[in-house]
């Protein structure tokens, strides 16, 4: 992996919330292959009634104001397969955003959890087979989520509240709630300065 992808540094300095089945650096492609455990997920209570705290998130501590971008190949196509960016304060306070395969289509969206989870999605079938980037920018009391496929402009996905004093970690994640064998190809995870503004 190259230093530019940020994956080597994250793998060296970060920690897993839950160890995946396999992690394979691919040096010549500057990629990281992560295989999820069947049944892995992140969700708290709302509508479904269960608490799942078993996602595979590779995180590092962050500053109060920061941005993180995670890129991955969107080549998964089974119900609830998911990958993207994860921001975690604790088991009750976290945000995941990315692409989740749901109801026959890849959907870009976010789950914001303040004790209980919510979920927002929008279909993105044209992103299939492409490299997708999800960016989370934290500043003040807000996390701003944007996402795009290679060759497209970023689109606003979500603006979510977060306690400005909360201390969090951030990085990449994947999960496979309904099946074994999901392997996500991550191509970058970069940290930097937060967005200058919402618009």
Q: Could you walk me through the main structural features you see in this protein, from its secondary elements to its overall organization?
A:
InterPro entries: ConA-like_dom_sf (IPR013320), DUF1349 (IPR009784). This is DUF1349 domain-containing protein. This protein has 199 residues and is mainly beta. It has one domain (3-186): Jelly Rolls. The protein is built from 1 helix and 17 strands. The chain has one helix at residues 7-13; strands at residues 15-16, 22-26, 31-35, 42-44, 51-53, 56-61, 66-73, 82-90, 93-102, 105-114, 116-117, 120-123, 131-139, 142-149, 155-161, 169-175, 183-192. The strands form 3 sheets. Strands 1, 6, 8, 9, 10, 11, 12 and 16 form an 8-stranded antiparallel beta sheet that branches. The radius of gyration is 15 Å and the shape is globular. The model has no long low-confidence stretch (mean pLDDT 96).
CATH architecture: Sandwich
Broad structural category: mainly beta
What summary fits the major beta sheet? 8 strands, antiparallel
Spatial separation of the terminal alpha carbons: 34 Å
Uncertain runs are none
Q: Quaternary state, please?
A: single chain
Q: Can you identify the CATH class? A: Mainly Beta
Structural domain count: 1
- SSE ordering: HEEEEEEEEEEEEEEEEE
Q: Count the helices. How many?
A: 1
Average per-residue pLDDT, rounded, comes to: 96
**Strand residues, percent:** over 45%
Radius of gyration: 15 Å
CATH topology: Jelly Rolls
Q: Percent of residues in helical segments?
A: under 10%
Spatial shape = globular
Number of strands: 17
InterPro entries: ConA-like_dom_sf (IPR013320), DUF1349 (IPR009784)
Protein name: DUF1349 domain-containing protein
Organism: Curtobacterium subtropicum
């Amino acid at each position: 992996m190259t230093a530019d992808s940020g994956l080597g540094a994250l793998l060296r300095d970060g920690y897993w919330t839950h160890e995946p089945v396999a992690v394979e650096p691919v040096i010549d492609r500057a990629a990281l292959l992560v295989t999820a455990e069947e049944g892995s997920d992140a969700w708290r209570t709302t509508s479904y009634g269960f608490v799942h705290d078993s996602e595979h998130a590779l995180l590092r501590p962050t500053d109060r104001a920061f941005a993180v971008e995670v890129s991955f190949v969107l080549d998964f196509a089974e119900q609830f397969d998911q990958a993207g960016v994860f921001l975690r304060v604790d088991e009750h306070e976290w945000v995941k955003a990315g692409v989740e395969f749901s109801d026959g289509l890849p959907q870009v969206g976010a789950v914001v959890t303040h004790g209980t989870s919510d979920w927002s999605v929008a279909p993105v079938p044209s992103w299939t087979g492409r490299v997708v980037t999800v960016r989370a920018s934290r500043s003040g009391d807000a996390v701003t989520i944007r996402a795009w496929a290679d060759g497209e402009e970023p689109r606003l996905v979500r603006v979510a509240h977060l306690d400005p004093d909360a201390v969090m970690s951030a990085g990449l994640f994947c999960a496979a709630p309904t099946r074994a064998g999901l392997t996500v190809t991550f191509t970058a995870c970069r940290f930097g300065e937060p967005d200058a503004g919402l618009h």
